[in-house]
Design brief:
By secondary structure, the chain is α+β, with helices and mostly antiparallel strands. It contains three helices and four strands. A two-stranded antiparallel sheet has the order 1-2. The protein has a two-stranded antiparallel ribbon with strand order 3-4. This is Putative xylan 1,4-beta-xylosidase.
Length: 102
């Protein structure tokens, strides 16, 4: 009998959806929706194509839409992420122990 790491036991293998006229969409658990003959990840699981999920839009349009949906707390959390701010900090490397947050 073999044991499997619990962290990876529930991970699904990615499924790739190839399409003409659009990028290959890879998903592990996000549903895929079809709009105008194209496939998109339904990341918000709304069943509708939201602007930030639409790969046909520019990166700035998608980012602006997603940023408008996030709370200040969510945006602040994204801004704090950096390898040198890992918790717990490894204590070595180019930025040892510089994160003093709680």
């Amino acid at each position: 009998m073999t044991s499997q790491d619990p962290a990876t036991a529930s991970q699904k293998a990615p499924t790739f959806h190839h399409q003409d006229g659009g990028p290959t969409i890879g998903t592990c658990d996000a549903p895929v929706i079809e709009v105008d003959g194209h496939l998109f990840k339904d990341l918000a699981r709304t069943g509708e194509l939201l602007p930030y999920e639409d790969w046909r839009l520019s990166a700035s349009e998608r980012a602006a839409d997603l940023a408008g949906r996030l709370s200040i707390e969510q945006i602040a959390g994204l801004m704090l992420y950096s390898p040198h701010q890992a918790v717990p900090n490894p204590g070595h490397g180019p930025f040892p122990g510089t994160y003093g947050g709680g």
